[in-house]
Amino acid sequence: MPYSYFRKFIGTSKYFIIKGSKLFIILMVNKMSDIIQIIKAEIIKCHKISFGEKKNYFTILIWPILLFFTAYYSYKPLSFDSEQWSIFTSNESIIMFLIIGYLTYNCFFSLVRNALFMRQEREEGVLEIIFLSPAKRLALMYGRSLGALIQNVWMFCIFAIFIIIFIGGLEMKTFIYFPIVFLLICVSASIWGGLLNTIFLFSRDTTIVFYLLDEPMLLFSGVKIPVSIFPTWAKVISSFFPITYVLYIARGLLMNTLVAKTTYLILLLILCFIMFITVKLLRIAENCYRENGNINFY
Amino acid sequence: MKEGKTLLEAFNLSKTYHVTERKSILKIERKDIFAVENISLNIETGKVIGLLGINGAGKTTTIKMLSSLIKPTSGEIIFDGVDCIKNPFELKKNVNIISGGERSLYWRLSAIENLEYFGALYNIPKKVLQNRIESLIEMTDIKDFAKYPVETYSKGMKQRLQFARGLINDPKMIFLDEPTLGLDVPIVKQIHGYIQKIVREEGKGILLTTHYMAEVEKLCDYVYILNKGKVILEGSPSEIIHLSQLNSKVTITLKRKSSFKDRLFIINECSDRLRETPVIDANKHSITISINKEKISMFLQILINQGLIINEIEIEDPKLEDAIFLFSQIYRD
Questions:
Q1: How far does chain A reach from its first CA to its final CA, in angstroms?
Q2: How many CB atoms within 10 Å of residue A73?
Q3: Which residues of B, range 44-103, sit inside 8 Å of A by Cβ?
Q4: Does the beta-carbon distance from A133 to B64 stay under 8 Å?
Q5: pTM of the predicted structure, to 2 decimals
Q6: What's the rounded Cα separation, in Å, for the pair B162 and B148?
Q7: How far, in Å, CA of A254 to CA of A267, rounded?
């Protein structure tokens, strides 16, 4: 008798576990498809607004290319005998170092540009309409970040051609690592962009945030100067930017330099921390808006 | 036609904004601004509810509270049986705002792209969204320009697109915040047509704020009048006019010119019995008097008793605008 009860109990439990799991999967799939729909809509919108005209595809390349040449020709007359400059083993390595630096920086910067667009949306009253909807706020923030994805893919392709022309070809290994590096940059930049978008929700005067985050990022994260030559205080600043670790890894994979395993771990931890902060700030921003009454002007 | 089911109920809503005022370089003073105090209102399906008041009366704050955009300091909002202060996202799924003016749209995107974007925010399945976009574009008559960027649209077209945007999630309730602001008469008529269609045919509940009283008289079933954040009066437009006890303007045209004796008699009788003095234009054979509607028959009786033959009677009822002006004067202090 107790055995039959036990079997019945197991059978019922099994039934509920299977049904529950199915329901959970359906719910998760539905939730994910909702999030994907919002992210997709944001990507399409950002892309259409940024690239309304075809010529924009080419004009966005002018600035990074000019920056690249400026840095390259600044380095050219110098000699890099010191151990701190060990990454510069040849002329090609300088080109590679700078191309990876500027490419990564531009991916991060394109997200800053998208975040800056929020100011315009706030003034035009669109942000209020967006916040009126039940759309997942986090999906909106990351969707905005990923809005620069198409631009980044385009830039990556152009830079890849650039590398091939300047260096005269690429190793097979580099070709394999290229999509991995691209994915790493996109994910890291999107998480960074999500944080910027959220910060920009707090104030319409975003210039200060831009100067505080963007310029130091360009200077201290090793985009054009290796972090190894920085004094300690500058190294401390550089350690706060996720792009610093992305650049270590990207250069390590594409330039065959050694990357410490802790770099991957630190990057992962920083990205998790940024996501956590983003979620918290987003909640505070919406509460602040609901208390103060006007997303357009608070 | 679905009509009369309570959709949204608000009880004793209040909103206080905490602001800071800089008195000097070192001194900052905190101040509380009472934007809305103890407002209770009811919105039903298939009805247009008007929210009226002069600038700063608290209309926008009320709309923002009711649409979940801001949190009331105190009070309750119940939408379809759900407490919307605790569950604002339940309300967000079922409401939308249509504002007047050219804002709240992406000007670099086309009408279709705008509607696709705003539709995606409500997680509407792709096929349903496409069908809805088609029917809304058809309804708002922007089909020929649907693929052009909004920046090329006229003001009226942008407003019609706003209307389509506001209906993209098929909301049960819509907040119309001065939807005909600065529009030409034909466009206003079109917008009124859309409002009547979605209310009468689709049974949606509407809360309308406007400064155009003719619009209120034409569209609203019930009206709340706000003054300094408080509801000072509520009722149907005709009830409010009635409450104001404003006089109707009655103009009588006589068949023949009245004599001096007739005129004297009419003035005396009206002053004694109606407590009003008529204006008599002897050349045009007309007599004009401003009296309460209920006294019109008494006025006609005076003329008939004097043996005057009436050719034409024109009655101009008091306007809602006059009634609201009167009440705002009474509650000014």
A1: 70
A2: 9
A3: 61, 64, 67-71, 88-89, 92-93, 95-97, 99, 103
A4: no
A5: 0.80
A6: 15
A7: 18
